[in-house]
Amino acid sequence: MASATTSAEILRHTTAFTSETLSQSNLRLRLLSALRRKLPTSDQNVLRQLNLAADTLENAISTSSSFNRSSSVRLAEKLLHSHPDTLFSSFLLSLLYALLNRHTEAAHSLLNIFSSDPSLARSEIAPVMFEEFFLIHLLPVLQSFKDQRSRILSSLSSKNLGYDSDKRSRFEESVVVSGTRLLSKMSGGQTSELKELERDYEEVLDENCRLLVGYFREVLGNENGSRLIRPPSLIFEKIRKSDEFKFNEDEQHKMEEIGLGNGRYNNPTWAEGERSVEFCSSGSSSKSKSPPFYPQRVSLKILRNQKSSRTLSAISTNLNSGSELESSSEDNLSTSSSESECETQEKNRKMALFEPRGSQIRKQKQPIYAESSSSPERVMAADSDDPPGGGKCTPPPKDFICPITSHIFDDPVTLETGQTYERKAIQEWIDRGNSTCPITRQKLHSTQLPKTNYVLKRLIASWQEQNPGFISIHSDNPDPETDPIFNSTLPVLPSTSPNSVISQATMDGTISELRLAITKLCMSEILRESEKAVLRIEQFWQEMNMGLEIQAMLSKPAVINGFVEILFNSVDPRVLRATVFLLCELGSRDKTVIQTLTRVDSDVECIVALFKNGLLEAVVLIYLLRPSTISLIEMDMVESLLVVIKKKQDGFLEMCLTPKTASILLLGQILGSSEGNIVTSIARTVASAKAIKNIVESLEAEWAEERIAAVGILLRCMQEDGKCRHTIADKAELAPVLESFMGASDGERFEIINFFSELVKLNRRTFNEQVLHIIKDEGAFSTMHTLLIYLQTALQDQCPVVAGLLLQLDLLVEPRKMSIYREEAMDTLISCLRNSDFPAAQIAAAETIVSLQGRFSSSGKSLTRASLLKRAGLDKSYRTLMQVDQLSNSSGESEENLEEEQAADEWERKMAFVLVSHEFGLLFEALAEGLRSRNQELFSSCFLSATWLIHMLPVLPDTGIRGAARVCLLKRFISMFKSAKDTEEKALSMLALSSFIHDPEGLNDLTSHMKDILKGLRQLKKSCILAVDMLKVFSEGNNSSIDLWYHKELVQVDCSANGEVLSIVCFRDKIFSGHSDGTINVWTGRGSILHLIHETREHTKAVTSLAILESGERLYSGSLDRTARIWSIGSEAIYCVQVHEMKDQVNNLVVANSIACFIPQGAGVKVHSWNGGSKLLNPNKYVKCLALVHGKLYCGCHDNSIQEIDLATGTLSSIQSGTRKLLGKSNPVLALQVHDGMIYSSSFSLDGAAVKIWSATNYTMVGSLASTMEVRTLAVSSELIYLGSKSGTVEIWCRKKLIRVETLQTGTNGKVQCMALDGDEEVLVVGTSDGRVQAWELS
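and the corresponding structure tokens:
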């Protein structure tokens, strides 16, 4: 027995296995397939749950999202723990625990497999782990059985066997012995005893595996090593009478003392000279990487079910570590297999062509001996003097035998050296790194194997027909006498009429001609003769009623190979079509023909090449070959398939299957089983090829399988290129599809339902309802009742789609008080939406509810979000979608568009009522739960659904559902409105909240969050008219307007070192201030701090004014130094790009694109062109302040007059007349602002109104502000008026009500000389005469 095992060693081996399985999807798929076959089929519910667990775990392995992985793992673990332990669930749990880094639990789950089914575990699931981990403990058992086998063979004469009978020499010498010679010398008793020993060996091995599993579990449980756990005693033999197993301690210790220190182990049921290539050395821990050369072990189950009485054979092979394969013409490989395994491996080999390329490569890398073991009887028949079949049998010619495998060629290839080998054997030789011919040792110029040697293959097939006794041993048909395929003499058909001698003679003559044609096809070396033979055979087939005998005659491998050689060599289109026709007819009737064709890769490649080169009938033959999806994709046949689908079927031969049907079925297979990106590419190719109408015709096909395949193709096309949906809806006959539903499988039924659901996503509501009526009313069965029954048994993630379609069909009539279909559909949708154990079903349910609004683009995309944004005032997304869809807005279609819009509104109203009225608003609770989900996809769909349904509440009858919506969702929407960063998300939340402001209880709930809501509404008021309306509602409904406005001081900066702050302006995230010492400072706000990022002093005197033209990102400055400068605004500084000499002091500079206006030292206003010219306007007035808006210059003068000058025409209009000085004191207009068609002017409050408001259109005064302050500067926003006073305070007035709402204190005695608002009107910046810059935020 091996030394004690540690838990670390166990975890190392189990973790290596789980890590490799997790990293290789193909390996996982193969292992799951093997384990799935072991599941009991009686409980379909358990099978579904386990399959769902497997799919969920696969999603966890493949996803890149940590959240999706954790949720999938939790769901899979819950599913697996809810069912009894099986091999399948234990395997899934081992992967699941490995994914969670719970390696000890993973090891326990993996050991469950070795305990439950040791044979399966060591042969199919984890053979490497068994060899490296278990087998080292079982070496004494292996040696014991080997000795027993030696004793059985001890009676055989060493002379006859051809090797020394001394045991030690048998161990140490390498002698190659033919397995068939060994079997031929055995007696019947020895053969039976060997078989019995094999069975005992398998069962003893199983029991020892279970013992070791228990031992390993104890070791894993002893993590801290506190207990000494000894390895268990091994079982060495089975006691027959009681079916118990006997422990032999002495034998075990004896084996430990024998020289097994070299680390090699022998399989006791094979020859003594056999060694494993992958062995352990006592002096080194490395292992040979060569593949094992011993035959694969036959499972105990196969041995027990074996019908034949043949015994196993073995051939010894000298296998030194590091040696290469030395080939000879005979006796150089080990072969052993049962007849049943022969048949299984032969079938697997024939089908290997259609497995993925990666799988083929892996299979080819297995030992070539495993391949050759598929038919060992061939060698037995050749070597034995009295073969089992009775009578003498001619041995095959030496040229028919592969020098590597010693078997008759199946797929011979002749290398450039002239030597011929079995394709798979020589491929294995090359894959092992060899680049020489095994026999001649000549270097091969190319390792690419040539095509099959068809001449040799045909001769072999001919020889096999003449020696049926030889071939019958490994034939699928155990009785060659009754199988016409293997009869060497062609049968004589009975007369067509017992009384007609003429008919009998005619038939005999026809058969003779057919026999002659077949002979020419198979044996002639002249291509033209073989082509004529094909045409003659096709003529026989078309004209005569071919019986089974004729069919069997043409289905023989030699004949089929002859047809294939014609396909390779002929260029005559008629001959090629005839050949394909015959192969299709034969293949559709006899599966052995297909097996013959799929045996050689190049045969299939030839057929595909002919099809792609224009032999369109070959598509039928390709379909009959049943290629895998991956093979079809690699064949790149989509374009050729579409050519067949679009071609008129009149020009094709009448075959067992029409080429179009075969093309539809193949295309459906490709689109139904491929990966997402491949499906997308192929579906777009199909749609762009204008083949949709032709595929739609297949919906009416007689064969249900073709109809279902067409449904799958059209579904993928609609999902990838939705614009073909209109063509399908217009042309499709849906009744045959509905009839296919009853006989389809569950997967096909869901495909049909998905097809209907996609089909009714048309951008015309009236057309949608017409299609729904067809689905509802046509067909032999009630569609709604059928959907209801299917809904009750559908998978969880399929239920929302089924329920959505059922709900739409039920809504075709006015919603009634009771409808079993509607109730069941609604219960299903809500149940799926609330079931967090199935995230995919939750998302599908939420998306289904969104789509039920019924508005779609021409490509089938839901317009729910875009239409809601349009209602909120953000209609850009909606307009963009309409432009993409190229919907016409011409006057000729206005009436039709109006009708469609009315139909859409009516559908939306009815659907919303059905959804919200179910169980008094139960859906709102489910949506509220979805809004708390961390899954972004689920959250988005629930948010959209909830917004839509709440928005519809005001137009629906109030049956108490508004209260349910308010309780479930109002606080959630307030929270989202406050926290939303995205403008569209905030607008949608606002749209939902607007439904509550007309409800007294809802408005009361909103009041407690008034300030936060108002802030969000102000942010949206520029882009959403709905925000303005809501602000009006809140303003009118609030008694104290002061509560609506509040400004919080952000920062105050002292820059008195630069003198007074004479001008200030905001642009994006920057603030620019002009100072009396000629300095311009650039500030940026970060949090509650103003950072000075740039300071420049290029003006020599005070900077009196700053202005910005946003279009050009230019800053303009005017100064008392008689210059105006233009600055480029950079990210961290400003740069002077132009200096203009103004020839006068510049006060109150205002700018447009091409001109600047300013107040000079004297009277009037100067207009300066940036090109150099200037002129004086309004020379009779001394102007105090200016405003320039849309080409109109507004002047506030010292005499309290206000004028408007049209700069284009020079026209001057008086808005307010001047007044004489009162008591010698002038009353100038101190500040002037124009905003939204209103002129705001400030002066001394001699008449009680410091600020007057004028209409810019008719110059009438429309209001005034009764402030007593001396207002020096003004700033106006869309809601508020800011007045900066001489006393250092800022009053804030409501623009609409003209009442004061707030007063800000600067905290200094300095005058407020300038003010500016940022672009969002959220921040007010003030400059004072004592050199301070202050900022307040509207909060």
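(Above: one complete record from the training split.) Residues 188-221 form the longest helix (34 residues).
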